[in-house]
């Protein structure tokens, strides 16, 4: 099964602490941030809550929401995550609903081993090519090398179909319908994003074999309808049903049907689930045949290949739900899949409340809970001592619980409860009152209304960003406006590639050569929708590609593969640097360089030393680095670093490259102008993430970081820091110094090539294909 990537994720481009070193006494001072460079915080955000706005920094917002909302926890293998009970409960609700549906089709659940022999996996070339880069291989057993490597399943076609060939001996054995609820591993090299893109994920994969093509096609479409229902009826997420283009279909399939979602915050489409008609491709490969019953009736003996399908839905669905509904207070979970639908919080209990009154109130709370549970509502009561009602309100809002019931002594006197809906942002409009005797009927109805309203709100947002076009001149500008567009297309695979290439060139600008090593960019086709709009007439409407002479067959949905305004950096290299005693380590990022010498020579490299810089950057085209010499190092390495003045550095690059440097992740200190624009970087920790774990919430310098009283916060941050940096263990973080920690702290979260000391004096480049890649 293919869960094609439609969203490139970046959890967090870690920033760097900035402090200015007093040249006289060496005491670090906290850098004064320029207002325009400060990360915009949510007004009134509680320390425990979400402190960055979704519209300002989606990646950071997403990270906070899923961790503070207790959906996932980090694990010590990069790209793998712990699904907390709250998120796993959502998956269980999806599983229960869908499993009941497929069993009406006589689909039976089974389980096949996670390991696939190399012979079977490599048996189907086209299929393997679709997954080759993502396959994880087991090559050792203990200390011994395996005779043949064994693959960890990326999907199960090649594991299951040899069994199908043995199991199916007659047309009477058809249809054979098996489903697995399991995990698969795809060793993504792009930056992982929990739920959306991870190296291991949960899914169901159905595999069926049929006697006729008609039977197989009927099933493919039925499964797709149920996938759409999972999103729309359970997760309250609107989707579009359609067929993938030839270029985007599952490797080895006759055709692929798909449901495509939309993330309003990014303006990008995202593949939600797929159902594939495999035809006879795999049955021919694995020799799955039966005697043709029609030929036998005519007195002939003829074997035919069976028709096969495969279809899959993954835990990506949870991520799409979070990105669609979440807001600046945290998660917003639809009632039908929420682990807890209603939380009851006693209010009005103070130090003056007697023990008897408190006990009486709690008994009434328990009675309300029992009444709601009797009608199938999933309820939790929050009786935690030592926490104010306001704290509890914020805590449960952050966790996305659909409905809150507040009940205090005054409510008890009136015989009512106060309700608050999580899906309504205005807290006044979200509140209501319900009589206690009406709760068993009113609360289930209110939960259903919340479910409907969430879908309606998300559908409205999707519809507002779906634009139909026939004019190529509006193609890229409309995509850049965070829209999904529907355009006429001839459905030619080469023409589709041309549209992608032309849209990439348009986004880059006229006359600018595209870097062949730059990340993929341009329009990405989502699907050919089943429901076609008016105005596109086959044989009359021209294809959107201005260079294509063919007429459009149908409308085709497009989204951006990579927006021109998102930052990317694939690889940056330097020539060998001139100068004395160059035992050089180098970190190159667009607009950023650090040179380390073995001596304390502080001579700046000449402008010629930076000539030849080659950057691949598709980022904010209006940003340039600040002026002034820059130094990147903790205090104990300061004397061994060479500073670079950004103007000569940027002037050495082409005009386009100079214009495309992203904003640098630091600000200039202004506390003492007499000291000049010198900046000291503290690469041993990310101050913004570390500060969240400090009791005081301060903006610490390196000395603060090392204080004994901050050790618990430091250790907690180190675990998180190490998890999101492949190959880095928590105990390594404390020991990091020099260029390695600078590389990681500058946001190179997926370092493909570690920087090491170049004995020959040659420069080693840090290569990071996904450094600033946003969700695509």
Automatic annotation (TrEMBL):
It holds the Pfam family tRNA-synt_2b. HAMAP family: Pro_tRNA_synth_type3. InterPro entries: aa-tRNA-synt_IIb, aa-tRNA-synth_II, aa-tRNA-synth_II/BPL/LPL, Anticodon-bd, Anticodon-bd_dom_sf, Pro-tRNA-ligase_IIa, Pro-tRNA-ligase_IIa_arc-type, Pro-tRNA_ligase_II_C. The keyword Amino-acid biosynthesis does not apply. Keywords: Aminoacyl-tRNA synthetase, ATP-binding, Ligase, Nucleotide-binding, Protein biosynthesis. NCBIfam families: proS_fam_I (TIGR00408). GO terms for biological process: prolyl-tRNA aminoacylation. One of its GO terms (molecular function) is proline-tRNA ligase activity. Its EC number is 6.1.1.15. It catalyses: tRNA(Pro) + L-proline + ATP = L-prolyl-tRNA(Pro) + AMP + diphosphate. It comes from Pseudopithomyces chartarum. Belongs to the class-II aminoacyl-tRNA synthetase family. SMART domains: ProRS-C_1. This is proline--tRNA ligase. It is an enzyme of class 6 (ligase). SUPFAM superfamilies: C-terminal domain of ProRS, Class II aaRS ABD-related, Class II aaRS and biotin synthetases. The keyword Ligase applies. Residues 1-38 are annotated as: Disordered. One of its GO terms (cellular component) is cytoplasm.
